[in-house]
Amino acid sequence: MSLKTPSLGVDLVCDCLNGMGCSGVIVEEKELDTFVMPHHELERGQEYSIRAFFPEPEDIDHWRGDIERHLLEISSFIPGWSPLAMELKLLADENWAEDWKQNFHSFRVGSHLVFKPTWDKGPVPEGDIVINIDPGMAFGTGTHPSTRLCLERLNGILEAGYPLGKVLDVGTGSGILAMAAVALGAERVLGCDVDETACAVARRNIAMNGMENEIEVSGKLLAEIEEKFDVVVANILAEENVRLGPDLLRCLNKGGWLILSGILGEKETLIKSGFSLFSLTLPRITRLEDWSCFVFQKKA
């Protein structure tokens, strides 16, 4: 399938299409690793062509409807853009989907946490904690800047001497942050996501890593969760972070850590304003490419 979007929407649209199970993405003429967002600078105000490759669906009309619904959900964050002009084309199988594997390798977060694709059979240094990544998973592998920032902050909390305890992963997607929390020593993790497909993907990846006993995946709304946690992480859009702010804080123990990501740099002011009325410490902000991550601690 192909469609066009202004530069502001490239990251959001690619994320959305990856979340719908695409096998690869091309922006303009630059071929991308399925799970690695573009590292080149996009020219503001310019329109970009995006091509996404999917396995042929059994019911193409139902599949198209799902794609349009997901794109419409993010269209309000891309001024003047409509996703309904996308084009579909059936391609012959040229085994192209295997080629990008050559460019997706294991990567490390912190001293001992390693994310490794299942086809990488190379040795792992003693003492490393490995999270296996299936190349077919739909919702990401931790290489997107916003997810990478969350992984680094989880690791940073632990290295600062604070055990993770109980962790809530809001919008769990692939479950990668939930699995990282367990690998870093969390006692229990609850991953919640309102998307049924995301929940299914997360459960599959959690099972592949043998973490079913430590991680629960729930389709509940955040407002329905009554449990308290020591760490709450939300890698979602800035506007959603603000909207869910009261419930995020309600679920956080006093002295606990709140990690907010999925925030474009230009939305930092929105986060600062939206969380200024809560009983929180001043945030620590880390940045990677166009994305920002906020870490607050709830005052006792």
Give a written overview of the molecule.
The chain is an alpha/beta fold and 300 residues long. It is built from eight helices and 14 strands. The chain has helices spanning 10-19, 60-75, 145-159, 176-183, 196-208, 238-243, 245-250, 268-274, and strands spanning 2-6, 24-27, 30-32, 47-53, 107-109, 113-117, 129-133, 166-170, 188-192, 215-218, 229-235, 252-264, 284-288, 291-297. The strands form three sheets. The chain has a seven-stranded mixed sheet. A four-stranded antiparallel sheet has the order 1-4-2-3, covered by helices on one side. Helix 1 (10-19) packs antiparallel against helix 2 (60-75). It is globular, with a radius of gyration of 19 Å.
Enumerate the spans where pLDDT stays under 50 for 5 or more consecutive residues.
Answer: 29-41, 93-97, 135-139
Which range best describes the helical content: under 10%, 10-25%, 25-40%, 40-55%, 55-70% or over 70%?
25-40%
What would the average pLDDT be, to the nearest integer?
81
| Broad shape | globular
Sheet/helix structural class: alpha/beta
Count of alpha/pi helices: 8
Radius of gyration (Å): 19 Å
Spatial arrangement of strands, main beta sheet: 10-9-8-11-12-14-13
Characterize the biggest β-sheet: 7 strands, mixed
Q: For the record, give the distance between the C-alpha atoms at the N and C termini, rounded to a whole number.
A: 51 Å
Give, in order, the helices and strands.
EHEEEHEEEHEHEHEEHHEHEE
